[in-house]
Amino acid sequence: AQKVTQAQTEISVVEKEDVTLDCVYETRDTTYYLFWYKQPPSGELVFLIRRNSFDEQNEISGRYSWNFQKSTSSFNFTITASQVVDSAVYFCALSEAGTGANNLFFGTGTRLTVIP
Amino acid sequence: DAGVIQSPRHEVTEMGQEVTLRCKPISGHNSLFWYRQTMMRGLELLIYFNNNVPIDDSGMPEDRFSAKMPNASFSTLKIQPSEPRDSAVYFCASSLAEMANYGYTFGSGTRLTVV
């Protein structure tokens, strides 16, 4: 079963628009961790945020914000006033602490294109 | 901090040849991970090491793949013999803790093309 679902394959927005990238996860663990990574056209994977399952407080970092809702198993990512430099593929990922596994389960990614 | 360093950045090889991908983790990180990224399968974990010891290699696709970590500052992923379906981007990542909970730092990846 897919542990992390990113239903939006591609999104295009015009510069300065706000955009929300959806992430739905599935786990039976009570302790788990959620991540967002950015993969720009250059190809590297850039860590954006980590959130543990006990902390549902939303987080804001500049133009980025994250909405974690355990009730809907979602960890959505919003970019406010998008810029061309935000164009990238964004991955949501899950780590389950209970299994002792050291695997980050990645979603299939959402390709964001910001049009100038 | 130079980050996780992978080499080469690009590799083109003929089917049947041996390919060796290299990784230097961040100094002080005690866990190292090899991931493969393809269009069909996305990002998948191949193997990870903790304190230079392979912990889980269940993601290694088949016996043609092998990985080593002779010391804390170097790891290799070898494919012998290579096949066209091995074409992918291979990422190395390292972290401070054994658990993935702290997040990984990824290298820039090696784009492998097997013709």
General description of the model:
- The complex is a heterodimer of chains A (116) and B (115).
- With 116 residues, chain A is mainly β.
- Helix content of chain A is 0%, strand content 51%.
- In chain A, a hairpin with a 2-residue loop joins strand 7 and strand 8.
- By secondary structure, chain B is mainly β.
- Chain B is built from no helices and 11 strands.
- In chain B, the strands form 2 sheets. In chain B, strands 2, 4, 5, 6, 9, 10 and 11 form a 7-stranded mixed sheet that branches. A 4-stranded antiparallel sheet of chain B has the order 1-3-8-7, with no helix packed on it.
- In chain B, strand 7 (65-71) and strand 8 form a beta hairpin.
- The chains are: A mainly beta (116), B mainly beta (115).
- At the A-B interface, strand 5 and strand 6 of A face strand 5, strand 9 and strand 10 of B.
Distinct helical segment count of chain A: 0
Task: List the secondary-structure elements of chain B in sequence, H or E.
Answer: EEEEEEEEEEE
How many beta-strand runs of chain B? 11
Largest interface: pair, residues per side: A-B, 22 and 26 residues
Q: What Rg of chain A, in angstroms, do the CA atoms define? A: 14 Å
Note the beta-strand portion of chain A: over 45%
Mean pLDDT of chain B: 92
Provide the residue-averaged pLDDT of chain A. Answer: 91
Q: What share of the residues of chain B lie within helices?
A: under 10%
Coarse shape of chain B: globular
Largest sheet of chain B: 7 strands, mixed
Low-confidence stretches of chain A: none
Structural class of chain B: mainly beta
Alpha carbon gyration radius of chain B = 13 Å
How many H/I helices of chain B?
Answer: 0
Largest sheet of chain A: 6 strands, mixed
Q: Given the C-alpha coordinates, what overall shape of chain A results? A: globular
Order of helices and strands of chain A: EEEEEEEEEEEE
User: What is the distance, rounded to the nearest whole angstrom, between the alpha carbons of the first and last residues of chain B?
Assistant: 36 Å
Oligomer: heterodimer
Please tally the β strands of chain A and state the result. 12
